[in-house]
Amino acid sequence: xxxxxxxxxxxxxxxxxxxxxxxxxxxxxxxxxxxxxxxxxxxxxxxxxxxxxxxxxxxxxxxxxxxxxxxxxxxxxxxxxxxxxxxxxxxxxxxxxxxxxxxxxxxxxxxxxxxxxxxxxxxxxxxxxxxxxxxxxxxxxxxxxxxxxxxxxxxxxxxxxxxxxxxxxxxxxxxxxxxxxxx
Length: 183
What we know:
The chain is of the alpha+beta class. It is built from 6 helices and 5 strands.
């Protein structure tokens, strides 16, 4: 019979897995409580970093339908549950791990797809969602301006040609064909 505390812990972790876009499993052996506090702060408000027992975390993950992470639940384990931008969380973990080698990224999951530690580091190299959206909007705006100029070019050329012909006609008919000789 499982204790009520363990049942509650499994239910909480399961809920975190179900409500997160991504989850990153790390090893934290050698980090102090103060360092873990700094890590939690650096991850931002949309990432919850939780130290948990492997057995309870594995049960909760499996109940939530996440079986891709089972191999990572060995040794000291903590999970970063990401409800916001996964790139921001990956950057926070990567940067913290550079300064504190005791933090080791084991792997993770993003929208149902398993990620290796290398893939998480590549994700951290991406620009944030807001920057990517701004670049996309800028590209679309430039494309629309280019399209408008392309559609406007033939009309502009026609107006210039018509204006030039009108100018020649006003100057005395230069450039107009001579009437055919009637014999």
